[in-house]
Write a structure and sequence with these properties.
single chain; 5 helices; three-stranded parallel sheet; about 160 residues; mainly alpha; about 50% helix
């Protein structure tokens, strides 16, 4: 947090990296900066300091001529979705995940494309477990293998089919 406190500070550091690497990698290399991808899961009314930091990060994101792409990580949070829906059964959970894959991806990519017009968008990380990739911390796995496969297939299709 001290090194990367906000988007403007981070962009300045990333630009230093770009300037140092450009002579080594050559003129054809593409450089990317990092978005927070906040529009995917965080409502604008969120009150958590961390969530507000991510929203502010994306608000400050603006195009510059020294980078050609922006990366985004899309992590639906199963526990949050299930809790907000009042602990529905497995069939409803699947609908929630698919809805997040459809609407969340579209919302996040549209928001990012609007902020950085003309830049490539690289989805460099995605997981249907939020930040919890494999360890369920002793709790039942909310994303069984079959649902995981379906979500990954849907997410991949949406990401590749996106006109952005």
């Amino acid at each position: 947090m001290r090194i990367w406190p906000d988007e403007p500070t981070s962009l300045a550091v990333m630009k230093q990296y770009e300037q140092a690497l450009q002579p080594i990698v050559g003129a054809g290399a593409k450089f990317a900066v990092q978005s927070a991808g906040a529009a995917f899961t965080i409502p604008p009314t969120a009150t958590s300091k961390f969530q507000q930091r991510l929203l502010a990060w994306d608000q400050a994101l603006a195009p510059a001529d020294w980078f050609q792409a922006v990366t985004i990580h899309l992590y639906p949070d199963p526990a949050q979705m299930i809790q907000q829906a009042g602990n529905p059964g497995p069939a409803r959970e699947f609908q929630l995940f698919m809805g997040k894959a459809d609407a969340g991806v579209d919302r996040a990519l549209s928001d990012l494309a609007r902020r950085v017009p003309g830049k490539e968008i690289w989805i460099t990380e995605w997981s249907p477990r939020g930040g919890n990739f494999a360890d369920t911390f002793g709790q039942p796995d909310l994303v069984p293998p079959q649902m995981n496969a379906q979500l990954v297939a849907r997410e991949t299709w949406l990401s590749c089919a996106s006109p952005r």
